[in-house]
Design brief:
The chain has about 550 residues and is mainly alpha-helical. About 75% of the residues lie in helices and about 0% in strands.
Length: about 550
């Protein structure tokens, strides 16, 4: 491998990592400042235990649910042949286009006491209030179900890509040694796919920890709602920073625990590239049973809420639908595309710099950058505003010295500052995907490239880039969809008179105009579908070409 020292690539990675981590650092800097009152002691004595308990339970159920659904669906579509497999192969990622807060709106309307489900039950059985028990969707369990329904594609996408790339030689070898399909899965495929599974679950958990819209609508008290309450309601940024620091510490502990439990295990695939394991054909009712099980998360996370939104949009919808929505969609698409390209490039540079230099400093910087995904979007936005505003004042002062005129704020309130916030918030999405891809490339390839006289940059361009294209496309997809759905940071930092589909949905929903908000919410889902379907079908074509 490359020597354990700081190379020019490592120095560039450190500078970029410092820039991306600056918003989080500016938030944590408030820990060393005195507060405006007794907010922290009040929170610690009253609601902090509830924040901790609710957050832990939510993470537990979301982690278990996304793992069970994502891994089983990925294994079924890669290793089994059943009716509808080719359609489900790409359709199972569609729930990723549905924001969690939109799921909360739709299922609350469906499952509340006056909703169509309970109304139909009362009419069918003649029940009255108190005659039956029905689960309360506006609870911690209900919120966990919403997150599982929309976040399992993280685990599905990364695990599926891992199984596709490594299912060839090792799975076939296990089958030739007498192992059945289940034994080969648990003894070979599942352990080797561990980095991808952990990456997907980590993304789902950090998305859960950073969510505000769904948990606040359901009345679930988590760290995120506490941060918003302390910062924006009580006006105490120090207490909010302390809560955010606890949240970051929790995420860092999870990632460190996984690294420690992994130990000296390695997950490289030294088998043949380009080959594919044979799918097991399921006969009769077994195939249809697997089809039904794979359809369940798709219907729950996409088809049903999409149908509700479509019905609302046709029945009432937004009376202002027209040219304005084309502009909103264009704004959302521009921001998402720009942020996804920048995030993938930065993630590739940071991950490869940590791999090639093997410097503890670069590795630590890469880990710190990844923690931004667990910080709520509005807190990241405030963290961006602090250094960007100071830089704006410096630039304005220099401009006045050179020209004698005041240019105003050049960066604050612009598109560049908003994309900067997106990078600080969502770079982890790309890093997890790129890390999972690099973990599957054996270090012997780096050593061979080194022996042939290739440097770090040439090795990345000529060896790793072709092997990482699938992981990079997956990373771009995940960032694109996340930016499309991002609400708090966009609300705080968008330029004047620059709205997106997410801000339009929030504006109408905050006024309890849910049926009108359905038009913008449906547009978010629709705009996010195209890249989802395109990338999923491309990965499916790669799988078919290997057969």
């Amino acid at each position: 491998m490359f020597p354990n020292r700081l190379t020019p690539l490592s120095l560039i990675a450190l500078v970029l990592a410092a820039l991306v981590a600056a918003p989080v650092a500016s938030v944590l800097f408030n820990l060393f400042q005195s507060g405006t009152g007794d907010t922290w002691s009040h929170l610690a004595a009253t609601v902090l235990p509830d924040y901790i308990a609710s957050t832990l339970w939510l993470c537990l159920w979301v982690g278990l649910g996304t793992t069970a659904i994502g891994v089983s669906a990925a294994w079924a579509t890669v290793m089994l042949e059943f009716p509808g497999r080719r359609m489900l192969d790409w359709a199972l990622v569609l729930p990723l286009a549905t924001p969690a807060y939109v799921m909360a709106y739709t299922y609350t309307d469906l499952l509340q006491f006056v909703g169509p489900v309970q109304t139909a039950l009362r009419e069918a059985f003649g029940w009255e209030r108190g005659d039956y028990w029905f689960p309360d969707v506006r609870s911690t369990g209900g919120a966990a179900c919403m997150f599982v329904a929309v976040l399992y594609p993280y685990v599905y996408l990364l695990t599926r890509q891992s199984l596709i790339e490594r299912a060839a030689g090792l799975t076939e070898a296990a089958r030739m040694l007498g192992q059945g399909p289940w034994a080969a899965f648990f003894r070979v495929s599942l352990p080797l796919a561990r980095p991808a599974i952990v990456a997907g679950v980590s993304l789902a958990l950090m998305e859960t920890l950073a969510d505000y819209g769904a948990v606040s609508y359901f009345g679930v008290q988590t760290f995120t709602t506490g941060i918003y309450r302390a910062w924006f309601s009580l006006g105490d940024r120090v207490a909010a920073a302390q809560l955010a620091a606890l949240l970051l510490g929790f995420v860092a502990s999870l990632l460190l625990l996984e690294r420690l439990t992994r130990g000296a295990a390695r997950f490289h695939d030294g088998g043949r590239a380009g080959a594919s394991a044979r799918r097991m054909v399921l006969p009769g009712w077994c195939g249809w049973l697997v089809t039904a099980l794979c359809l369940l998360p798709l219907v729950t996370g996409f088809v049903l809420p999409g149908a509700v939104l479509l019905n609302w949009a046709f029945v009432e919808g937004d009376a202002q639908f027209g040219e304005r929505f084309l502009r909103l969609a264009a704004n959302s698409f521009t921001l998402a595309a720009s942020a996804s390209v920048c995030a993938v490039m930065l993630a590739l540079l940071l991950a490869y710099a940590a791999r090639s230099s093997r410097s503890p400093l670069v590795t630590a910087a890469r880990t710190v950058v990844g923690l931004g995904y667990a910080v709520p979007g509005a807190v990241i936005a405030v963290g961006v505003l602090i250094p960007v505003t100071r830089l704006d004042h410096v630039l304005s002062g220099l401009w006045m010295q050179w020209t004698g005129s005041n240019p105003g704020l050049l960066l604050t309130g612009g598109i560049a500052a908003l994309i900067y916030a997106y990078l600080a918030r969502f770079l982890t999405v790309s890093l997890q995907s790129v890390d999972a891809g690099l973990a599957r490339i054996t270090p012997s390839m780096d050593e061979a490239a080194r022996s042939l006289g290739l440097g770090a940059g040439a090795t990345l361009r000529r060896v790793h880039w072709p092997m990482l294209r699938g992981s990079l496309l997956t990373a771009a997809l995940l960032v694109f969809v996340d930016v499309m759905k991002e609400l708090p940071a966009t609300l705080v930092m968008r330029p004047f008179n620059f709205d997106t589909l997410a801000t339009q949905t929030y504006t109408l929903a905050s006024d309890e105009r849910l049926h009108e908000a359905s038009t913008a919410a449906l547009a978010i889902v629709a705009v996010g579908l195209l890249p989802l379907i395109s990338l999923s079908r491309q990965i499916a074509r790669q799988r078919r070409n290997q057969v």
